[in-house]
Amino acid sequence: MKIAIAGTGYVGLVTGSCFAEMGTDVTCIDVNSKKIENLKNGIIPIFEPGLDEIAERNIKAGRLHFSTSLSNCINDVEALFIAVGTPPQEDGNADLQHVLDVAKIIGQNLEKYVLIVTKSTVPVGTSQKVRQVIEEELKIRNRNIEFDVASNPEFLKEGDAVNDFLKPDRIVVGINSERAKKLITKMYNPFMINNFRIIFMDIASAEMTKYAANSMLATRISFMNDIANLCDLLGANVNMVRQGIGSDLRIGSKFLYSGCGYGGSCFPKDIKALIQTAKGKGYNMQILNAVESVNEEQKKIVFKKLEKHFNGSLAGKTIAVWGLSFKPQTDDVREAPSLQTIKMLIDAKCKVRVYDIAAMHEVKQIFGDKIIYSENMMNATKNADALLLVTEWKEFRLPNWEQIKSQMKTPVIIDGRNIYNREQLTEMGFTYYGIGQ
Questions:
Q1: Which of 28, 73, 231, 266 is flagged as catalytic?
Q2: Which of 12, 141, 384, 392 could bridge 83 with an S-S bond, Cβ 3.0-4.6 Å?
Q3: Is 231 a catalytic residue?
Q4: Enclosing domain of residue 268
């Protein structure tokens, strides 16, 4: 079976590589010729555990190919996945220009039946727009060629995307024809042999499912952060509260961890897009507006705790920051809480020393020489007045506290992810602040 993937970003590369791993012949397409040349040489532009190995293996096996020409391969495949970017516009709406550009090229070159699958995260109604663009181009060419459009939203966690794709807990697909259903089943059957969990539905519902899922997860995070902030004021411990409510089977324990806010390319963008979609229909998403507001304020919490500890006198202080990516196991810093924290530290005239396993280069492109980039986690804490933990990489979980205390100017720790033991650090002589403790 042959398929093509339009777009070699995070979703496109993972999708293409994992389909190739199951024996499908895959061509990944991108307009960026330098990126395609690098991919042909096995150079993966993103940090995602396991992706390098799986891509290299399938390139060598001749199942994974890369090209800059969509028009050259559209008629050689049974299905084409659209996995291009849908960045937020200034008003929060998703920018569909890249998606519709792909649809236009398809319509200009289509000569036989192909299933067009929208994999990009797109607002409800986008698949219909894709169909309309293709039909318009076919009409211009005076061609009557059958094709189908389906929606197949991705539910990949950055840092564990390869495993998520190879072992999905469910696959959501929006279709409007039996032919499309059979083709999708054929493509995904190798992934679902032991647990066939393809959920077929109408296209609009599939598009909405993606936004609803991310919005629910973000809501749980913001809810717990709101509870954590109240716990700080009332003397309760949010970790105990989390255990108490998470044991309720109606609630469950996932995404109930408080901290310094969520970031990344999905939650912030998708919530803004859904709010704007609702506005376009005259409806106000009250809960999601609150979720977004709580999260933006939560990104300031680590700085506020630091500022309170030093009674507002931060000028000249050396502050160490551990963790820059929005979550562990990725170099993605889009909407990362660390960016807000660093900006506030700079504005407060602090000397900022940062360290991250993967995201240093990304942050350097934003802040340049305004901050100091440490070669390892221990160097970042030298002569520091405080240590801020922003991203919970595993490397940070059990450091040499004795060494850290000996080289810090003042042993202050602000744990933005609640991964450390307050009692242990307090006994060692640290001043410790968590979130909601």
A1: 266
A2: 12
A3: no
A4: 211-297
